[in-house]
Design a protein that fits this description.
The structure is a homodimer of 443-residue chains. Chain A has 443 residues and is of the alpha/beta class. Chain A folds into two domains: 133 residues, Aspartate Aminotransferase, domain 1; 257 residues, Type I PLP-dependent aspartate aminotransferase-like (Major domain) (Aspartate Aminotransferase, domain 2). Helices cover 38% and strands 15% of the residues of chain A. In chain A, the strands form three sheets. In chain A, strands 4-10-9-8-7-5-6 form a seven-stranded mixed beta sheet, sandwiched between helices. In chain A, strands 1-2-3-13 form a four-stranded mixed beta sheet. In chain A, helix 3 runs antiparallel to helix 10 and helix 4 packs across helix 10. Chain A is globular, with a radius of gyration of 21 Å. At the A-B interface, helix 1, helix 2, strand 1, helix 3 and helix 4 of A face helix 1, helix 2, strand 1, helix 3 and helix 4 of B.
């Protein structure tokens, strides 16, 4: 069972549970299921109807306030007034496509590209992280004339046909495609002497050899550099350098999917790859880019983009529209003006210290990992076996205490602590106190 | 050379032409090219910098007003105040994902689904037409256990890896994939006795046989039912019934891509397929759905969606967000309240009559086709050869006279008349007068 499937099986609404529900909620769920059909997925045994968002909080239809420790799309805070105002103002003035010149679009492209190291100087704007990764795969194929890709075992990179092939966490009956190899997540606990850099690079090298032997060739390695759905692996900083060196030595491209770590989350700069002091060949952007306005992007070298464009005409109707540019600019402004990267580092450190302190009182807490405001906390049994049941119980108890949170990892036993970047020290303290109380009550 | 490539080669900015440009415009273009690189495509030999949109008009940086006869995304009019207000209001209140219940999302889903015939009762919300078609292909594969698809020769269905395979108009050096067959566009002029229904169905049948013989099987046929990028083929109404019957008889799915004809454009109802009195197996939505807010959708039968969801977990982060639902609801409201379907029929008829009247004075006008506010007008030489050069000259002259318009078709010789649906009779008259003047001046 894939991680996503396991996590959702534990923390989602199941039709079998409808019997005990409040009739009004049951009716609402019924309407959702009637329209969305088999694609309907709702969090929690008792799904929540949301009506309002503000900063780090979401409010449900009954007026209950939830501290959001889960949602990374509203990265600068739910309904941030500066982003909302930018969207409203631009939507009222002009919303068109990139085949006309529009000043705010050029301004955004330049502002965004200025945050990337050379030679990453071209941008293609898309609408989603999925579209971004879909395009990144094709750029890598064009550059390398190869088709084989390597990902981590519980990776998630999006929902298109091509990107689902490199997203094993989405598989149900689906199997790994012939042109894809999945390597284990870079867990230092699994490495001899903790040298995860060497182990991870060796696993990638073996996968490259296998792709070559199978006739697919090697186009690239793609990773979200904080390994979000694998269970959050951030340390030691720089461990990806050996992996990147192997990928390059073997003629492949290193694709950094910044949908999760990007836009300041890891607390060490705007981009997760900078934590590893590497320069990727392609960078993909999504989720937090517009704080909820649908937008994504692909950043790469001009010659790599030209190789793809020589083969295929690419146009994205909504990609690079001026409203997206306005939202994207406002996000960059808020990150800078509200010191959100520093906050991610400081409040993240406060959270991690607090969790580490809790660990001495609660043996069910295993490893604690992460960077900035993206922390993973494992729940394990006394014999160190992954314990997704405890993770699930904590997630549901957190909901009862007004906190939204989720799980990650191959076994779904990792609490995924990933709040909006405006998460304040007092929010962290409330979270820590609540977790202490829940674990105490669980005995 | 594909149609898109040919059309763009004629009507886009080329770096070689930069010499004669106004220095300020040249500088702006340089900034665009420096950031967007090889993916930068700008309309016209002298690109336009837009600053404002309102109704059927776009305004450039010099205050020049352009009548928009090209852009179908702002379908209810550029920056329609009701859509803008709906976006601004919802963005300020709540913007989250479909794993929580949100009333406006259910309301929109129900409202939209109510416009579709049985058994089309499930909706998956996406962010773009590309994502919609990408998902539709996989649903068809899951239902049929086959992989072969049939499209028309100059079709365009979007920009993902999977969808580009069924979009020959995007090909440059790319070739048709082994699992795809392209049939000629359904041009009645090519059919014996004009019986395009029989000819088109026979061409599809031959392609199905060929896919089967090649071992790919037959998953489905996908068409935009007004054949937008093939050159606009709308008549006779109902000609697709024979095609749909063949597709079903052979075990494939009929996918109607409503990105172009949908949301009232053809003047006979909300959906283009209803013009043919067929019920597709899957319908895909995009462009005009949110009047420029990035959103798309897939509509299908519950059992078909369930077949796909059993294999693969599908989640679309931005898809079905409440701001998209608000935009989508406002679009449906405006279409109804401003009688835009009736306007598409009436103003479209006025346009078509006017163009037909012009034809008697100008022999370079060939066939005139279309439905509602989507009309194609061929330019041909005296020996009836497609004449893309005249189409291009007209497009550039139109720009000088303050009208935005483009071309379509296998040879790029078809003027694509596709204004926002609020196009009024006086807009049509101005367009007809301008076209008359241009053709007269061209001698």
């Amino acid at each position: 069972m894939s991680a996503t499937k396991q996590i959702l099986a534990l923390n989602r609404f199941e039709a079998d549970n409808a019997a005990g529900l409040d009739p009004e909620l049951a009716e609402r769920i019924g309407r959702r299921q009637a329209t969305f059909g088999a694609s309907s997925v709702l969090f929690y045994e008792q799904p929540i109807e949301m009506v309002r968002g503000e900063g780090v909080f979401l409010y449900d239809v009954h007026g209950t306030r939830y501290l959001d420790v889960y949602n990374n799309v509203p990265s600068v805070g739910h309904c941030h007034p500066r982003v909302v105002e930018a969207i409203a103002r631009q939507a009222a003035a002009l919303n068109t496509n990139t085949r006309y010149l529009v000043r705010i679009v050029e301004t955004y492209a330049e502002r965004l590209l200025a945050t990337f190291p050379a030679p990453l100087s071209n941008l293609v704007m898309t609408c989603t992280g999925s579209e971004s990764n879909d395009l990144a795969l094709r750029i890598a194929e064009s550059v390398t004339n190869a088709r084989g890709f390597i990902v981590t075992r519980s990776a998630y990179h999006g929902n298109t046909a091509a990107v689902t092939h490199i997203s094993p966490s989405s598989f149900k009956s689906q199997k790994l495609a012939p042109h894809v190899r999945a390597v284990p997540a870079p867990d230092p606990l699994e490495a001899p002497k903790g040298d995860i850099a060497t182990l991870f690079a060796a696993q990638i090298k073996a996968a490259i050899d296998d792709l070559r032997a199978s006739g697919h060739g090697f186009a690239g390695f793609i990773a979200d550099t904080i390994f979000s759905s694998d269970g959050i692996f951030a340390d030691p900083p720089g461990f990806l350098q050996k992996a990147a060196a192997v990928v390059r030595a073997e003629g492949g491209l290193f694709i950094a999917d910044e949908v999760q770590p990007g836009f300041g989350r890891t607390g060490g700069g705007l981009w997760g790859f900078s934590r590893h002091a590497i320069v990727p060949d392609i960078v993909t952007l999504g989720k937090p880019m517009g704080n909820g306005f649908p937008m994504g992007g692909v950043i790469t070298r001009p010659d790599y983009l030209a190789a793809f464009c020589a083969e295929t005409g690419y146009f994205n109707t909504f990609g690079g529209n001026p409203v997206a540019a306005a939202a994207g600019l406002a996000v960059l402004d808020v990150i800078a003006d509200e010191n959100l990267i520093a906050n991610a580092a400081q409040t993240g450190a406060l959270l991690k210290d607090g969790l580490t302190a809790l660990k001495s009182d609660f043996p069910q807490i295993g490893d604690i990992r992460g960077a900035g405001l993206f922390i993973g906390l494992d729940f394990t049994t006394p014999d160190a076996t992954p314990d997704p049941a405890t993770a699930s119980a904590v997630i549901n108890a957190m909901k009862q205490h007004g906190i939204l949170i989720g799980a990650a990892g191959l076994y779904g036993h990792t609490l995924k602590i990933r709040p909006p970047l405006c998460f304040a020290p007092n929010n962290a303290e409330f979270f820590l106190e609540t977790l202490r109380g829940i674990l105490k009550a669980m005995g």
